[in-house]
Automatic annotation (TrEMBL):
Polar residues: compositionally biased ranges: 1-21
Residue span of region Disordered: 1-23
Protein name (record): Spore coat protein
Gene that this polypeptide is encoded by: yusN
Organism: Paraliobacillus quinghaiensis
InterPro entries (alphabetical): Spore_coat_CotF-like
Length: 108
C-alpha cells in the first residue's frame, strides 16, 4: 500500500498562503494548545488531593477535552488534519500480542 492510500483525509479547503496566519494556522495553534492543556489537566487530576478541587478540575478538563475534539473535527472536515490508516496485518499482530493479557485484568 503506498503512502497516499494510507492517509485518511477530506479534500483540503484552500487558504491563502501568506506570511500572516490564516484560518488553518489559527485552528492548528488552538488545537495544539488544547492538547497541551488536556494533558496538563490530566496530570493535575491525578495529583489533586482535595475532592472539591478535583471536581472543579474535572469539569474544566471535560470542557477542554470537548474543545479539543471540536477543533480536531473542524480541521479534519476541512482536510487540514489527516490520519494514517492502520494496516490490517499490524492490527492482527497487535491483537494477537495483547489478547493473552486478559488474565491480568480484575474483571474478565
Amino acid at each position: 500500500m503506498n503512502q497516499q492510500q494510507q492517509k485518511v483525509q477530506n479534500p483540503e479547503t484552500q487558504v491563502n498562503k501568506t506570511p500572516q496566519m490564516n484560518d488553518r494556522d489559527f485552528l492548528n495553534d488552538m488545537l495544539t494548545t488544547e492538547k497541551y492543556m488536556t494533558q496538563s489537566y490530566s496530570t493535575a487530576l491525578n495529583e489533586a488531593s482535595n475532592q472539591a478541587f478535583y471536581q472543579d478540575l474535572l469539569a474544566i478538563y471535560n470542557e477542554t477535552q470537548d474543545t479539543q475534539r471540536n477543533l480536531y473535527n473542524l480541521m479534519f472536515k476541512n482536510g487540514w488534519y489527516s490520519i494514517e490508516k492502520a494496516e490490517q496485518q499490524k492490527i492482527q499482530q497487535s491483537h494477537q500480542q495483547y489478547s493473552g493479557y486478559t488474565n491480568q485484568f480484575p474483571v474478565h
